Each structure stands twice: as structure tokens, then as C-alpha cells.
Amino acid sequence: MNIDDTEITVELYENVMDFYIPLEALDICRRTLKVNGVEVNYVALECWIVFKARRGSGKDLAELATVKNMIEEGVLSINKKLLEKIIDFYEEDKQYIIGRLRTLKIL
Question: For residues 47 and 90, is the Cβ–Cβ distance under 8 A?
Fold first, then answer.
């Protein structure tokens, strides 16, 4: 999607059963932004990071490495408390997610 000469990537998930997100996380993560007068719902960056770390495909890890670089360059900032709160909703996968984010040097 291109808005005002800015390229925006939109990820859509067709089957939420294939991509588990706790309802409590969605309540905390949901954000709204107006784009050309249209309200667009999205998830906070910290939540997106946790979702990507949990899924962990090659593409996900590459995107997380890009985010890490942007954080290091000061282009992005993250709320680590929010990141940790979202990780806590994934009780069974918590250590796995933390390990992956530490390996990527995001945590």
C-alpha cells in the first residue's frame, strides 16, 4: 500500500486459528490511526514483535532483525514493559519467545 508516497506493508491473517493471539493481548495491543480520514486498526509495535518472535519464520526473523537495527539507529523505540507484558500472556511459549528476542538483541 502506498499513502502519500510512503510505502506501507499491511499484514492480514486469514485464519486466526493458525496464529494464536490471546484476547487480553489484543485488548492491550489494539491501536487506531486515521489515514486519509479512514480509521485503521493495527497492533502496537511491541505486540507485533512478540507475535513475530513467537511464530519465528525466516521472514519473521529477518523483519525482526530490521526492527532491531532501526531501534539501534534511533529510528524506532519500544516500550520494554509492554513487550514483557505481552510475552507473559504466552505462558507455554514465554521462555522460547524471550530466548529468541535475546538472540536478536531486542531484549
Answer: no
